[in-house]
């Protein structure tokens, strides 16, 4: 009886190990494929979101909007987006900015937050007024 | 045709459950039925249940980095530790007694 349990247990243990390796491999492949899909979708939605920002957040005195994806800070002039380029979209997507003068509107978003923002057409933002140095947080705020 | 992740997880869950039943069964037979106390296996068993519990908690609170297959890897590693501990304990018993543990007489 003991031999039966022990032998069976060890055989199942080896099978368990092999299948775990297989599961890890399949899961990694699926994750990579999903990530590539997200990258493509992200690039597309980023331009959409910039359109939303441009239309919804009207900066005063040439203010700029900056936001961060996965630790990178991206900059964009809300009045005129000069360039949108990406090496690998989720890791390094950047919106170039020019003509940022007086006020700065800073929006910091993580990838998941950005997706939410796009879906809800709203962003969590932190406004920094360059003149007063005051910081205020809000949701979907408009620059006055 | 490539298996889907969900199918593999189901098979793995079944396999892991059977493996746990077999190993724990062997442990129970030696430790309780044969009356031979084991040193490492109870600790390894406790460790396995702790890993299972912690994994479940972390998975259910949706901790960012802990994907489903990480849970599978952790549990399999804990299961391997359990199996090796059982083997080492039995090997020790063989070396000590010169035979496999037998049920007590009477």
Q: Could you please describe the fold and organization of this structure?
A:
The complex is a heterodimer of chains A (144) and B (106). In chain A, strand 1 (64-69) and strand 2 (72-77) form a beta hairpin. The radius of gyration of chain A is 23 Å and the shape is elongated. In chain A, helix 1 crosses helix 2 (111-120). Chain A has 2 helices and 7 strands, in the order αβββββαββ. Chain A has 144 residues and is α+β, with helices and mostly antiparallel strands. Mean pLDDT of chain A is 50; it is low at 51-144. Chain B is an all-alpha fold and 106 residues long. Chain B has a domain at 37-106. Chain B has 3 helices and no strands. In chain B, helix 1 packs parallel to helix 3 (68-97) and helix 2 packs antiparallel against helix 3 (68-97). Chain B starts with a helix and ends in a 9-residue tail after the last helix. Chains A and B meet through helix 1 of A and helix 1 and helix 3 of B.
Helical content class of chain B: over 70%
Radius of gyration of chain A: 23 Å
Give the termini separation of chain B. Answer: 57 Å
Count up the helices of chain B: 3
Oligomeric description of these chains: heterodimer
Low-confidence residue ranges of chain A: 51-144
Give the fraction of residues assigned to helices of chain A.
Answer: 40-55%
Structural class of chain B: mainly alpha
User: Major sheet of chain A, described briefly?
Assistant: 5 strands, mixed
Given helix and strand content, the structural type of chain A is: alpha+beta
Rg of chain B (CA only)? 17 Å
Number of strands of chain B: 0
Q: State which percent range the strand residues of chain B make up.
A: under 5%
Based on Cα principal axes, name the global outline of chain A: elongated
Q: Counting H and I runs of at least 4 residues, what is the number of helices of chain A?
A: 2
- Mean pLDDT of chain A equals 50
Give, in order, the helices and strands of chain B.
Answer: HHH
Q: Which strand order spans the largest sheet of chain A, edge to edge or round the barrel?
A: 2-1-5-6-7
Strands of chain A, count:
7
């Amino acid at each position: 009886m003991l031999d039966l349990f022990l032998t069976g247990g060890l055989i199942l243990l080896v099978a368990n190990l092999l299948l775990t390796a297989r599961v890890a491999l399949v899961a990694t492949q699926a994750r990579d494929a999903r990530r590539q899909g997200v990258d493509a979708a992200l690039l597309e939605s980023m331009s959409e979101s910039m359109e939303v920002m441009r239309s919804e957040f009207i900066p005063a005195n040439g203010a700029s909007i900056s936001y961060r994806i996965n630790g990178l800070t991206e900059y964009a002039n809300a009045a005129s987006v000069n360039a949108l380029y990406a090496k690998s979209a989720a890791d390094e997507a950047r919106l170039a900015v020019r003509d940022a003068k007086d006020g700065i509107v800073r929006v910091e978003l993580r990838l998941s937050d950005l997706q939410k923002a796009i879906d809800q057409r709203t962003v969590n933002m932190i406004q920094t007024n360059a003149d007063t140095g005051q910081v205020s947080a809000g949701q979907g705020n408009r620059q006055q | 045709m490539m298996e889907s992740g969900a199918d593999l997880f189901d098979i793995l869950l079944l396999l892991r459950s059977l493996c746990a039943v077999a190993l724990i069964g062997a442990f129970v037979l030696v430790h309780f039925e044969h009356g031979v106390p084991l040193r490492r296996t109870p600790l390894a068993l406790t460790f396995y249940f702790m890993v299972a519990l912690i994994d479940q908690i972390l998975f259910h609170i949706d901790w960012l980095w802990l994907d489903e297959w990480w849970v599978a890897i952790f549990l399999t590693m804990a299961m391997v530790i359990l199996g090796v501990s059982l083997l080492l304990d039995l090997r020790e018993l063989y070396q000590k007694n010169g035979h496999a543990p037998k049920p007590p007489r009477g």
